[in-house]
């Protein structure tokens, strides 16, 4: 059982490659029980968990079946504590308290989802950057890849004053960052339902573009005034700040996380829908950019 718990803990919370038999069975049962489109099962078996309601309820269902989660008590530390040292448990519990304070106490799906996000974030400190290969009795192997060091390009051409960018200006800066970060493939016509491939090159591109488009500063962090001017459209400033503030809070990373990780995990995942709406509403102009067909498929 300990081996299974170790595997599932990594599988659900970190960065797995293969699934355990019990996870597969639980996943299949939950997809059927929740009447989730069967085609999503393949995504879940690859441990891709988009931030949508359906996935949140799937995570809750699977974690409950594997005895890792209880709606009343939260994370099942009786099962988890043998795998996690007390100092890490304290950090995870503090993170869970912060995140779940922002969520309706009776809305169990996002509560389970974000609790495991906290668990993932702190376990990454232990496992993710140590290039670990772990064998388990069931014959499965979890390979956690080492982080790939990338030099984030500077953006000296960015001015201190901000004017909202046109779709052409934003795309040019984005493609410049993609080239500097050695990102080989970028789809500007991607949909929110499609999973984001979390590669170092993509995170580097997002970080670089955030700086170069004037919505993030290495000194000041996220620049809400600029974001609102660029993306808000008809939304009031109060609504914009409140909506994103809740999302940023739910996705907050542990203190000491790299700026690239914070921009990608905490900010980009909350802002992805806003940027996609910006691109879709300016699609006609986007398609007029020379060579854009390579980035719109």
From TrEMBL:
One GO term describing the cellular component: extracellular space
Signal peptide limits: 1-19
Gene3D superfamilies listed in its UniProt record: Pheromone/general odorant binding protein domain
Keywords: Disulfide bond, Secreted, Signal
Single Gene Ontology BP annotation: sensory perception of smell
Similarity annotation: Belongs to the PBP/GOBP family.
Pfam families linked: PBP_GOBP
InterPro entries: PBP/GOBP, PBP_GOBP_sf
Highest classification ranks of the organism: Eukaryota, Metazoa, Ecdysozoa, Arthropoda, Hexapoda
Subcellular location: Secreted
CDD domains named in the record: PBP_GOBP
GO MF annotations, alphabetized: odorant binding
The keyword Cell membrane is annotated on this UniProt entry: no
Name of the molecule in the record: AAEL009599-PA
Species of provenance: Aedes aegypti (Yellowfever mosquito)
